[in-house]
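ENTRY TYPE: protein
CONTENTS: sequence, structure tokens:
***
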Amino acid sequence: MADLVLHAPQGANKRPKRVGRGSSSGLGTTAGKGNKGQQSRSGKSGPYVGFEGGQMPLYRRIARRGFSNAVFRTEYVVFNLDVLEAKYADGETVDRESLVKKGLLNKSSANIKVLGNGEITKKLTVSVNKVSASAKAKIEKAGGSVVESSAKTEETK
């Protein structure tokens, strides 16, 4: 048992390829990169993303028209009532901290909206940014309450 020696399996440890070390090494002169051209040069191998070999790129061929309001859009993380029914007990409060604690929400998530898909039987206090009309009606019918805070959160201010 004392003469047992650990070693790597055959072919696991290869010698590094020594390029540019003379013609007898097999990888001399051009170091295995062929002759001339873009791929033989040092630095970044290839042009920018969207380059089409000198042809006018698609993003420059297509006309840009109009205005997009996407930069100013307020995005929400949505939760349906069936998720709240499954994850919360009767009398609990649904807010950012409890959603993070239950693993349903990342801390970086901006705004929260509750939608009315599913049924709810538990009395919950919902304190989020937005609640749909159907969700609000179902929560209040079950004996819970809804508090909507402003759409802007601490992260977006």
The longest strand covers residues 76-80. Residues 133-141 form the longest helix (9 residues). The helical segments are 58-61, 81-87, 96-101, 133-141.
